Amino acid sequence: MYVVEVLSRSEWTARADAHRARLAPYVEPHLARRGARIKHPVNDFLFTYYSYRPAQLLRWHPGFGVTLSDAPEYADLRGYSNGTVSTDFLADKRLLVETLLKLLRATAGRDAHFGCFGLHEWAMVYQLTPEQVRHADWPLRLGTAGTDRVVESHRIACSHFDAYRFFTPPALPLNTLSPRSDDRAAFEQPGCLHGNMDLYGKVGVRLMPLICSDLLADAFELAWDIRALDMQAAPYDLSDLDEGWTPVKIETAEGKREYADLQRQLAERAAPIRAALIDECERLIAELPSAS
Fold first, then answer.
1. Is residue 217 part of a domain?
2. Which domain of life is it from (predicted)?
């Protein structure tokens, strides 16, 4: 069993408590809304689109190679044996780790692009009636015709399959790229909002509990801020939300500049998180015996 550190109960419970306190301000309002059957088009997204449940997010994990002393709370958790994530569990995840590492490296090695202006959200409602849109409770800021004109007057170059697949049928041929689910490494680029959001939900979450929850929390907080920009630049009118969401009007030159600046800032935050995930994947693979 590969072990680099042993944490006493007082050490690991302190870190677990700090992790929970860090993320509770995001999780608890979501749980309250869920209990009241109230939906939030922005702040519920990370809990509904991705597979990680709120209780899972609040639970701290030390990552592979760390043993937790006196930790019966972890005895029945997936992947654990005697207070540590087992090498057998890591071996079972070899293909996943190798696949994610390939994607992370390919994305990190590509130039970032900041000219998409969040048009993927507009393409998702292109030529739909108000009743058909995904967030039907929120009106389109420019109305149906105005929204369609924005789509038709811009070059759309969405590189992220999980955004592209939600385009309406009339919008699909308007995209200059054709990403597929099986060629993500050929398209992902480090400026993409959804690609950077997926550092949490499609990379970090899938690696748990092999990586430390501190890194996952970094990716979660980044994804939270990305989702805010994603919806500020979307075609929806969210002015009635309690937070008073201010739109980023990407249909204007000023709005485009604002979006690109914010997108660049988020990409700069994502870069060290992606690098840390690459390091973790490389470390995990190094601990495995060579594939026969």
1. yes
2. Bacteria
